[in-house]
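Sample intake — 11122_t:CDS:1
Collected from: Funneliformis mosseae
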Amino acid sequence: MNIINTLKLKPGLNVIVLYDGVCNICNLGIQFAMKRNNALPIVYYASLQSKLGLSLTDYYNLPKDLSTSVLLKYQIPNDFLQPHNSSSSIPNEVAQLPQPELFMKSDASIELVRYLDNPWPITYYIAKIIPRSLRDKIYDRFARDRYQNFGKTESCQMPIPGNNNNS
């Protein structure tokens, strides 16, 4: 899989969320976010179980634990996606994917709300007041019990049709 072509990155800010695609509450959260992301940057979603999710976790050596949501934030330069001229030392087909800013667990969740429509971004600032260690303890407890409390599907659910996604 050519990750660069699959991601369809555009110049500027690109945000990708990796989530547990069989978790009912995770899918509800993703659908909630998708309905409220009408401004730039467009956030893309892929389940951790999808080909893209597995490729990204391998590429960046991320944990494969389904209880860990991941948000990747790429800042793509305008010339990154342009075909390289013949004098370039790196041909386009082997260009390296830029290193994203990585957010995991509670940081991924609260970073995501920054890109939702108003009034949701205010929750980012409220949540950042809470120390990460406490947020992640709450996140881990919630993640541990998510299937028991909210159930799971037999197969990965697709996000809402018509929205940009990579599941």
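Post-analysis note: The first strand starts at residue 12 and ends at 19.
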